[in-house]
């Protein structure tokens, strides 16, 4: 068993997500989330600048709009 070295624990989730780029939307899946970040799996590698809009969809009728940075 490995020791967790992260400052904030990650919580596993399975939320649809949409990344908005100048060339259109890219759909993906949020795999885990913490106070300090979100792991998003995308089917294609986007080409965009440092900051970009993200739409997380934890529920069908509710979404969370944030601005993210690829790291």
Number of helices: 0
Query: What are the secondary-structure elements, in order, as H or E?
Result: EEEEE
Average pLDDT figure: 85
CATH class: Mainly Beta
N-to-C CA distance: 27 Å
**What's the multimeric state?**
single chain
CATH-scheme architecture: Beta Barrel
**Range of helix content:** under 10%
The named CATH superfamily: predicted glycosyltransferase like domains
Structural class: mainly beta
Number of strands: 5
Topology:
Layout: E1 11-21, E2 24-34, E3 37-42, E4 51-59, E5 62-69
Antiparallel strand pairs: 1-2, 1-4, 2-3, 4-5
Summarize the structure.
This protein is mostly beta strands. The protein is built from no helices and 5 strands. It has a 5-stranded antiparallel beta sheet, with no helix packed on it.
Structural overview:
The structure is a single chain. With 71 residues, this protein is mainly β. It has one domain (11-69): Thrombin, subunit H (Beta Barrel). It is 0% helix and 63% strand. The chain is built from no helices and five strands. The protein has strands at 11-21, 24-34, 37-42, 51-59, 62-69. The chain has a five-stranded antiparallel sheet, with no helix packed on it. It is globular, with a radius of gyration of 13 Å. The termini are far apart. The model has no long low-confidence stretch (mean pLDDT 85).
């Amino acid at each position: 068993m490995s020791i967790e070295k992260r400052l904030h624990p990650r919580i596993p989730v399975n939320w649809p997500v949409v990344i908005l780029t100048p060339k259109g939307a890219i759909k993906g899946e949020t795999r885990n989330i913490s106070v300090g970040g979100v792991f998003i799996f995308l089917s294609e590698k986007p080409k965009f600048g440092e900051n970009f809009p993200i739409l997380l969809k934890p529920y069908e009728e509710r979404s969370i709009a944030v601005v993210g940075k690829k790291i």
